[in-house]
Structures
1.
Amino acid sequence: MIDLQAVIDEFCALVRIDSPSLREGEVVRAIRDRLAEMGVVAEIDGAAEAVGGEVGNLIARVPGEPGAPTVLLNAHVDTVEPGCGICPTVEGTRICSAGDTVLGADDKAGVTIILAALRHILEEKLPHPPLEVVFTVAEEIGLCGAKALDYDALEAQMGLVLDGGRTMGVITNAAPSAYRLAWEVTGAAAHAGVCPERGINAIRVAAEAIAEMPLGRLDHETTANIGVIAGGEATNIVPERVTVDGETRSHDEAKLEAQKRRMIDAFEAAAERHGAAVAAEVTRSYRSFHVKHGEPVFDYAWRAAEALEVRPQAERGGGGSDANIFNEHGIPSVIIATGPADVHTVNESVDAGIMVESARWVTQVLQLIAAEASA
């Protein structure tokens, strides 16, 4: 039995612990203590140095049914800003923040679900496969913790990532590839009132470039965005320098490459028109994945949902998650629903009832794997 009130209490305790990206030390130690209370030993890896944070990923191993495939359970512990001083409020099964911060259900709902499922399995001595439980850091700033894992030390043959949406039964089995793009435009400074014709306005160059490129939802599997612009010194100075940060994502590699080229070309063309210089930095954020029907982890998640009389649904995601990195490293992984809505906003909320159902879903998946291994 997974107790609803216990799930609410644990979730609220976790979100009260500040854990913005790269400052997750306190929450990692709190999770390690909770695992220790279950008799599960967890270690902190060396990812802190790689990501530039105060703590590494938390990794625990739980022995299971001999002959069963090892399963990775994952959630990330960091939250986006504004995410410090979270004060959760509970109305029935709905939990939200006070309205001046995010709630942190992305992804402490996932953390809570894993802890609830583990506690239930161990207390009730339920059959389960060998488990590798990985709580990652710095996910929100580029999946950095997952990228820094030592994959040679992992034995997992499939993974469940607890970082999904609101609807119970949804299995996110595909996600896009992504590029991050950054430009620095260099023009020429001049007095804006005395001799503006001597200047080259870097902000204008950037504005023209952005206006020329397709942005937003480009088709059913491709998006692009310009998210950050910074530059200029004063209103009476023609701005010499501006920096621009953006991204593009697609489930189709050819479309991704074409959109990346369009964005770069737009800046180069605008710079050439005005005699400015532009430097571009392009970084591959993560690669797409598609775990298809028939692959074991997908089928186990699907059948477990049906066993709980929940209608399973496959969904293509629009964002990146640790699942992208696990799949890239040869661990087929899907993302399952955890209950939050309006994530990354101060209106974020989570349904604790869905958290309970998701913990039951995880438990059912693991029992199904163990049962088939022992048959």
Note: The domain at 177-286 is CATH 3.30.70.360 (Alpha-Beta Plaits).
2.
Amino acid sequence: MKRIVIIGAGPAGLTAAYELLNRSSEYSVTILEETSFIGGLSRSVKCSSCIMDPGGHRFFTGIDRIGKLWTELIPVSDDTGKNDDILMKRKRYSSIYFKDRFFDYPISAGIFRQLKGLNAPKAAMGYIRSAIFPRKENNLEDLFINRFGSPVYEMFFKTYTEKHWGRSPRDISADWGYQRIRALKLSSVIGNIFKSSEKAAPDEFYYPKYGPGQLWERTAELIKSKGADILSEHKVRRICTENGRISAVICTDKNGYEITVKGDIFLSSMPLKELSLGIDSAPKDIKRIAEGLSFRDHIIVGVLAVRPEKFPSDCWIYIHDNSLKVSRVQIYNNWSPYLLKDPDKYIWLGAEYFCQENDSLWKKSDNELAEIAAKELSQIGLIPSEKSVIHTHTERIKKAYPAYFDSYSEIDTIKKYMDSFGNLYCIGRNGQHRYNNMDHSMMTALVAVDNILSGKTDKADIWNVNTEDIYNEAQN
């Protein structure tokens, strides 16, 4: 029996284990997880009488194989009262908060009607100019301007991008935008300028009754029932190589004891940076590039407050206002009313802040962060007042977002090096240093398993997940 070692019990690692054990009895599976929980950013955090989704995980995909897997793990049901292990169908609304007003998101051709007094003609002409005379897309700023025009870029995208990444869009690779942003159509813009303003029909998506972690807890139960070992609080420190293959990983457990885990095949969803630096035989140039790979860290403050009279329909709201530190707000009532007790009486919000580990925001106490969140949510109008807050809970998440700057431009060198190890497969968001959604992360695992079972040695198809245009947000 071949030994499979999977690093990381997030969506990619758990999906890989589930798929392998379902399709073959020739493998033993051991999962090494650094933290005490499973699911990674896609976990459900239970706090007081509420459940928090740290990342806002919409179960929506253009990949049939992923959709079938979700419903195989947790079925879709409208019987929410009696059934717990279910996916509920939800309506997706989201907005941008800018200059004390709310605008539809994703940005569509209707934005030029919504702007009204905010230089709408200038914005429309700016878009038309960019559509006819596009820039060469050397960076993310060029991409945004080509897709929306300079005025809309300055109003909506520049500030938010700087808050999210802590860098100017000029310093960020356009690769991020190619993954996530689709251009407006010139004909749609011209046609919509003269229409009456109507809110776009919402997309539909699925969502587990008790948050995304419900799916991963279920997956973990199933793979353990098939013999897999999930070792929590086991941090991989070093990766051993022999004759051009990975031979073992050395990790420490929660008590600090070193453990060597040998294997025949390794799937890694640990940060590509840490994997590269941990390989004992990695060349100096690989380690130099790895040292330069950057991340954006994440703080989310859950705020339970008295329900306001005017209740928003949004699942989340992007805050494009430089006077506020908060970047995005999740409204958990609209994800699932089962994420809190008495949703008719309370509103349960997740205020998200992007930062760097150990910067001034990261170092603030939970109480200080709760005060900032309450003040800002009150200013936006999402809670009646700071005094209406009943309960708060703070989560700090390291390496939440792989960044597309610094040594990212040399990442192909690291990818080629990793592929030189025939028994190593890099999967997931951090495993590929790619801003993947949950379905993309899962798909990298499925493709890796396909390759393992078929004996395919070319790993390009694993790295190419989430490069096709079908993954982008539709922009009508």
Note: The first helix runs from residue 11 to 23.
3.
Amino acid sequence: MTRPSLAPTTIRPDQVGDPRFFTGTGPHPLAVIAAAAGLTLPARAADRAFTGVAPLHEAGPDQVSFLDNPRYAEGLATTRAGAVVLTQALASRLPSTAIALATPNPYLAWARICALFFPPPAVTPGIHPSAVIHPTADLAPGVEIGPLAVIGAHAILGAEVRIGPHAVIGPGVVIGAGADIGAHVSLSHARLGQRVRLLPGVRIGQDGFGFAPDGQGGYVSMPQLGRVIIHDDVEIGANVTIDRGSMRDTVIGPGTRIDNLVQVGHNVRLGRGCVLVAQCGISGSTTLGDHVQVAGQAGLTGHLTIGSRARIGAQAGVMENVPEGVSIVGSPAQPVREFFQHVMALRRLTARELRRGRQSTAARPDTNPEN
């Protein structure tokens, strides 16, 4: 039997989005591109068509590119891109062959333009023959159920929900319209809002980490009787775990973004638009206000209150409440300014001691009898 060729599909060297994995649209007139990004542009360029997007140094005349970091502004002079999304301050550095799409927030406009050329794949309604659907489950029109997925008793799936292969939706789970549940996700004791996106391997609703010592060297597990409530427009990365509450619910606020490999303990409450970066951990019963940012590998102990718009640096160890709008770093965590003052003081002290040690060595008489 002839084996299929493993040669890659032929694509342009400057093409972004391998067609084996991404379904593109276009070409699009510049007027449509600008409208998608909420930008204005000269009327003379409105009908010019573009086929896609590409990095600044690779883009061709029929592609859109962007620049949001002035550090790389030297690339503007040599770019072949037909249009570039950038700030007004950098627009004058573009060659005459490129159209400036100026905006105060280039990265936001770029995200919208990329989504125009590469929109999320549409739901394909239907239930795979290998899926197991309990007869009491309530499935709205237009759902897509992948191979070997399991839908438990009395689960409710809203319109145009996608359930990936091997996903397990436990009894009574509610999933709002437009949600996208990735492969191998497990959901129990949970209610999800609309347009929630769970990447592969997410675990939501399992027992929280609660137990009582029995006085004889053992432990008695504490029943976890709460739920996980995930509000609208939340995105949760691969292999994230979110425990259900013990007595009250674990809550993930609207618009929150959670990166891969994050642990959220039982009874945790996140406000609107929080951002949790990879490998951080939030211990039980800690509350985060709106728009809190927690950087990678930071750890928060339990029963804390983190004020809205607080920012927690990478690998920070947070053991005390954090006021609104405060940025902290270090372990134990402290305000950024104080942390770096301590670092500089330690460096000065270390440098002074090293100098003293070298001076002492130089002044010590040579006692080697062979000299």
Note: The chain is about 15% helix and 25% strand.
